[in-house]
Write a structure and sequence with these properties.
The chain is α+β, with helices and mostly antiparallel strands. The chain folds into 3 domains: about 100 residues, Ubiquitin-like (UB roll) (Roll); about 190 residues, Nucleotide cyclase, GGDEF domain (Alpha-Beta Plaits), CATH 3.30.70.1230; about 90 residues, no CATH class. The chain is built from 9 helices and 17 strands. A hairpin with a 6-residue loop joins strand 9 and strand 10. Helix 5 runs antiparallel to helix 6. The radius of gyration is 28 Å and the shape is elongated.
């Protein structure tokens, strides 16, 4: 008989050879949960093996499937599937009804996790001067602007295999490496660079529409975090906890002091150094930190690294790369303002409007920057038959359409 200590009950039970921990615990009067009756169809009987892991049986096939689905680390075991051959100490994890609800993760998204430690990259972004922007605009306009901005940012994060942890007012937190994606550290930097490019495309539109200067600061850090699901019921979401999150937030804030737009930590730099071009570096003590840090301002990926990602790593179903060119049969008289820069392309993602907001993400249709010389109207269309886009001369009307 194996002697097993049970925490927090401070009980010692005996487990016979071939007997499951669940059966032995119930026989000893330990109030251990088992919503499915001990058939490995739930995770409510799971226990934390504090000591004596070497005396525990290997996971059965059915336990392995459930552990994989719930991302259970090796020290968390299902009591109904575990037998013990020697001394061990375990902690019962489901203690009351609230614990039971938290533990019942079956039937939910695979992102539901009980907690695991791993190295990830954490990206924080924040809109520069957002307080002034929100004071200048109506609440409706603030929400419209944020939703437009977040739609563009979320597409970029998704395309680079990142996971958006949270939108926090005007801030965004994204995680990379949640599923051990290849090159996730470099993809986090690529995401930051593409986010800045997208913001540059949005700037003219926000300036002409709202009269505001729009910019974003981004900070990225690499380190160990605890990944797990927070919340209850349908409100659960995957999040990361640890110093890596706090430091990434401080690095984002440090951009303001350094006068930069995208900073990464030294830890992340050491991983991606051969694949990036550094614009500058700074030594400073981020707000809330005790020690000075070396932070790197990133200009771009190297040509070799960029060639490894010819297209978005995770394409959306409506990716414009494979979309047909849109041929507008009605050129548009569009009002323009002298000195304003507009962006035009044939992506077909702008609701047949002539100017592109970049929301389609990076594709072979690179937006064309054009600055209006005078205030008035210009004739534009998406026919792609003009000699000098974005202006339309109407010549496509004189070219017969190809036979169907």
């Amino acid at each position: 008989m194996a002697k097993v200590s049970v925490i927090p009950d401070n009980l010692q039970i005996e487990v016979a050879p071939g007997e499951s921990v669940l059966a032995a615990a119930k026989a000893a009067g330990v109030p251990i949960a088992s919503a499915c009756g001990g058939n490995a169809q739930c995770s409510t009987c799971r226990v934390w093996i504090v000591d004596g892991m070497e005396n525990c049986s290997a996971r059965s096939e059915i336990e392995e499937r459930l552990a994989t689905k719930l991302h259970l680390p090796s020290h968390l075991r299902l009591a109904c599937q575990t037998t013990i051959t020697g001394p061990a100490t375990l902690r019962r994890l489901v203690l009351d009804d609230a614990d039971l609800d938290i533990a019942s993760l079956l039937g939910k998204e695979a992102q539901a996790r009980v907690g695991e430690q791993k190295n990830i990259a954490v990206l924080f972004s924040d809109i520069a001067g957002f307080t002034g922007i929100s004071e200048k605009l109506s609440p409706y306009d603030v929400l419209f602007l944020l939703n437009k901005y977040y739609a563009a940012m979320a597409a970029i994060v998704d395309e680079n295999r990142g996971y958006i942890d949270n939108f926090i007012g005007d801030g965004l937190m994204a995680l990379f490496g949640v599923e051990n994606e290849p090159d996730f550290a470099l993809l986090s930097v690529k995401t930051g660079l593409e986010m800045q490019k997208a913001v540059d495309r949005l700037k003219p539109q926000f300036h002409s529409t709202y009269g505001i200067d729009f910019g974003v600061r981004i900070g990225i850090h690499y380190g160990e975090a605890v990944l797990g699901s927070l919340g209850s019921g349908d409100r659960q979401r995957l999040t990361a906890i640890g110093d890596v999150v706090n430091i990434a937030s401080r690095i984002e804030i440090a951009n303001k002091e350094a006068g930069t737009r995208l900073l990464i930590s030294e830890q992340l730099y050491e991983i991606v150094r051969d694949a990036i071009v550094v614009e500058d570096y700074v030594r400073l003590r981020p707000r809330g930190a005790t020690d000075r840090m070396t932070l790197y301002s990133i200009a771009r990926l190297t040509p070799e690294a960029d060639a490894r990602f010819p297209h978005a790593a995770k394409k959306r179903p409506d990716a414009a790369e494979d979309a047909p060119l849109v041929a507008s049969k009605t050129p548009l008289n569009v009002p323009v303002i002298a000195g304003e820069t507009y962006y035009w392309c044939a992506c077909g993602r702008s609701g047949n409007q002539p100017f592109c907001d970049g929301s389609h993400g990076p594709t072979r249709f690179s937006p064309l920057a054009w600055t209006a010389a005078k205030t008035g109207t210009e004739l534009l269309c998406l026919c792609k038959r003009t000699a000098k886009p974005p202006f339309c001369d109407g010549s496509h009307r004189r070219i017969p359409e190809p036979a169907a």
